[in-house]
Amino acid sequence: MSRFSEIQQAPPVAVFALTAAYKADSNPNKVNCGVGAYRTDDSQPWVLPVVRQVETQLAADHSLNHEYLPISGLPEFTSASVNLILGADNPAVLENRALGFQALSGTGALRLGAEFLSRQAKYNIVYLPDPTWPNHNGIFKAAMFSELRKYRYFKADTRGLHIEGMLEDLRGAPENAVVILHACAHNPTGVDPTREQWKQIAEVCKAKKLFVFFDAAYVGFASGSVETDRWPVTYFLSQGIELFCAQSYSKNFGLYNERIGCLTSVVNDPEVKLRIKSQMEIIARVLWSNPPNHGARIVSTVLNNPALLAQWFDHIATMSSRIKSMRQALYERLKALGTPGTWHHITDQIGMFSYTGLGPNQVEFMKKNYAVYAMKDGRMNMCALTTKNVDYVANAIHEAVSKVHEDPKL
Predict the structure, then answer these.
(1) How far apart are the first and last CA of the chain?
(2) What is d(CA 367, CA 6) in angstroms, rounded to the nearest whole number?
(3) I want to staple 17 with a disulfide (CB 3.0 to 4.6 A). Which of 12, 132, 289, 346 is the partner?
(4) From CA 185, how far away is CA 312, in angstroms rounded?
(5) What stretch of H or E contains 312?
(6) What are phi and psi of 394, to 5 degrees?
């Protein structure tokens, strides 16, 4: 008998369990709309050409080695990441008020920031959008936040933003509560505030003295424009709001398994930057000790080279435009089929995911009868749609909505 015999089996991580079921399915028409990764119109992962080019360049450079990086990361990577999310001409950059710290993708950046806020700032209440990326909950629990509260975000009857409820909930938050805001392409809903709504949100956060923590996993990938996708972050800074921003290069560079991210901190007094960095180094030393080099060199090489950067801008525009075209195609097919309900939210939403409004029984119907896999909450990855399967997926949705009647969200 093992000393671990009493250990209970943990529930599987939903999205990975869904992918495992998809892989085991023998249906030749199967479609995986669950996993959050970009696919080409041939349903294949896409290694960005500029990434291939830089990898070849790095492999041929015999001056490079595999020595440890500084705990805070590759300096040319962190400085480029700060410039990407803020703009090189941002006052926070010019006045030396911004700090970049390399982390294990967006997840690691969130955890690093949460640990710092819990240990050093003694913040223990976090407000998360309802719904949000499920890992947000686990990250802040692990960082010893004592209260995880929800603020209203998605309005089911309009399949849009619940701006009134969101503002009301944030007005009720205590001073120094941490507020997680998705900078763009909200996961899982694909619903983003308008610029006027962002201004209202910033006004409340500033008035209530809340600490703003942006999760920026899709900058450039959402709209195809870095400047557009980072606008909420730069607007908050223009209002004198100190903040953290977790950046990920999984989606916009396609570096999913390289785990490359950055935590950007912006403060009003440059004198505190080094103290923040020193405390983050202590935290990072325990969490992962030293950050990975390969992906960081890829990103920094691209971001610091104008010609390569121009190529990357083309790549993110390609990915964004393909997603938009698939949204439009799905909407048009559902409309042509006469699918019950309204479907304009498919094209109103932005980014990788759509909160379709499908219920869990309808999702199960699609999986069983069409081998179309989606998350139980109705979230579907629009990147999984192609010109070859969009009719098939539309028919699956149409039949599910027409035949399966549950507490209707449509």
Answers:
(1) 52
(2) 35
(3) 12
(4) 19
(5) helix 306-337
(6) -60, -40
Distance (Å) of CA 18 to CA 132, 354, 355: 19, 17, 17
Note whether 109 and 115 are within 8 A (CB).
no
Q: What is residue 334's predicted lDDT score, i.e. its pLDDT?
A: 97
Q: Which two tokens stand for residue 207?
A: 């008035």
Q: What residues act catalytically?
A: 133, 215, 251
Q: Give the tokens for residue 301.
A: 């090489």
- Phi, psi angles (nearest 5°) of residue 214: -80, 140
Q: Residue 64 to residues 69, 162, 262, 351: CA-CA distances in angstroms?
A: 12, 50, 22, 36
Hey, which bits of 331-377 come out as E strands? 353-355, 372-373
Tokens at 158, concatenated: 């309009």
How many angstroms separate the CA atoms of 274 and 267, rounded?
11
Tokens of 210: 């809340």
Report the alpha-carbon angle 70-73-79, nearest 5: 125
- Tens of pLDDT, residues 162-189: 999 999 999 999 999 999 999 999 999 9
**Can you give the pTM of this predicted structure?**
0.95
Q: Are 362 and 339 in contact (CB under 8 A)?
A: no
Give the residue among 347, 365, 364 at the shortest CA–CA distance from 356.
347
Within 10 Å of residue 83's Cβ, how many Cβ atoms? 18
Do 236 and 243 touch, CB atoms closer than 8 A?
A: yes
- Asked if the bond preceding 134 is cis, omega within 30° of 0, the reply is no
Tens of pLDDT, residues 97-114: 999 999 999 999 999 999
Question: What residues form DSSP beta bridges with 262?
Answer: 102, 247
Helical ranges in 218-272 per DSSP H: 226-229, 231-238, 250-253
Q: 163-171 vs 195-207: helix axis angle to the nearest 10?
A: 10
Amino acid at 242: E
**3-state secondary structure (DSSP) of residue 129:** strand
